[in-house]
Predict the structure of Olfactory receptor.
Amino acid sequence: MLEAPLSRNFSHSTFVLRGFPSLQKHRRLLALPFSASYLLVLLGNSLLMYIICSVERLHSPMYLLICTLCFVDILVVTTIIPNMLLGFLFNWNEISLVGCLTQMFFIHFLSSVESTLLLAMALDRYFAICRPLRYNEIINSAMLVRLVLFTLVRSVSVMATLVGLAGSLQFCGSNVIQHCYCDHMALVSLACDSTSRSSAAGLAVIICFVGADIPIIFFSYMKILSVVLRSAAAGEDSRKAFHTCSTHLIVMMCFYLVGSITFLSHNLNIPIPTDINNSMGLMYILFPAAINPVIYGVRTKEIRDSFLRIFKNRAKKIMTVKVSSAGKGKS
């Protein structure tokens, strides 16, 4: 008679992360593509941040938002990948409840910050293209300060509530998390008491960020495209605006679509195989982080030209040093 109450009074304080359960025999091979992806994210985003910070004419709101997006991408990927690689290579899969909740908070917090940045970038392009005469009046340093405050208040309050509800649950059954990192619903699904409040909080996150941000982003880009199509005779400016919009939409489609499916699969009991759900959970974080340097770097003329200018200047300096060193050697 006491067995059931005793088991429900017990709660795990340590968990085991088991991502890609059907591929456990090949987990060391899995480390290779994820290591390469992580290095790509670090190198690409760091280079893009360096270019934007080094070139003064790129210190406009749009490029500062891109720079911040790169920084957030590095942070969110670093929150997940190193720990995951240790699990793949050395079987270090254990994580404490406090460590799990901390990782969960930063993953979801940084993802929500990225959502706000994508919203800000859409509004920046809207005012630059649809309201150019009022752009400098609206998009200024005061607006950027308000954006930071709005981001912190919204993201911290919502994600702290989400993580707090998850941390208040009892985990008396299995302590194996079927994911590569501490995903919210992957942990909550292990609870042995009611998870209705945590599930409702998860849906509230989708409504608060996806439901609120996507309509504004969609409206902004529809207005931008309508202006671009009406001014088709403008030639180069129209192509440039259309090009900018298309690059932003590529990132947003991946981020919001895949992220929403992953987040809702547990909440709505959508039967998605564990390995596929793990892949989608990683893809919605890794893919935008890896592709952003290409979209905003290679495909953006101002940044591409700045990179080539910096590269040529560095090459000239190296050649000058070598020539001067050779001259001194001869003398």
